[in-house]
Fold:
Amino acid sequence: MRTFKIVIAGNGGVGKSSLLHRYVAGQFNRSYSVTIGADFASREVDLGDEMIRLVIWDLAGQRRFRVVRDGFYRGAKVVVIVFDTTDPESWEELPLWEKEVTQRVPKAQIVVVGNKTDLKHERVIPQSAAHRWAKRRCYGYVETSCASGVGVDDLFVGIAHLVSSL
Structure:
């Protein structure tokens, strides 16, 4: 079985830990707690002709943890940059995350995720704008809701297919 390292990055509070826990444990917790440094979990994915293991690292998003994050990028095949569709600041800081990721792991594939899509009435970042931003950079774009689970499995199964072809 082949194993691939996946990293989840983005501002604090965008739902990175929720993505990890929803996918690996099938659980969602509405309370917010800051990730200190990094957290990780793994899950095996059956692609039909092959089983692969995704080792998924959730990196702390607060600026004060930037130095700590550097080493956790090493060896990542895919980096998922998450923003909150209800938070303009997390959207505006996507270029900063893009720069951090491309400097640390220039050969990694990047997937952009718009999270918290269940909060329809609070949404401020249109899907079309996010999709255009990612497409201009040749990144994949996926929308998720950790609360409802919509898009979460699709995100990681898609990543599994992506890395299996590397």
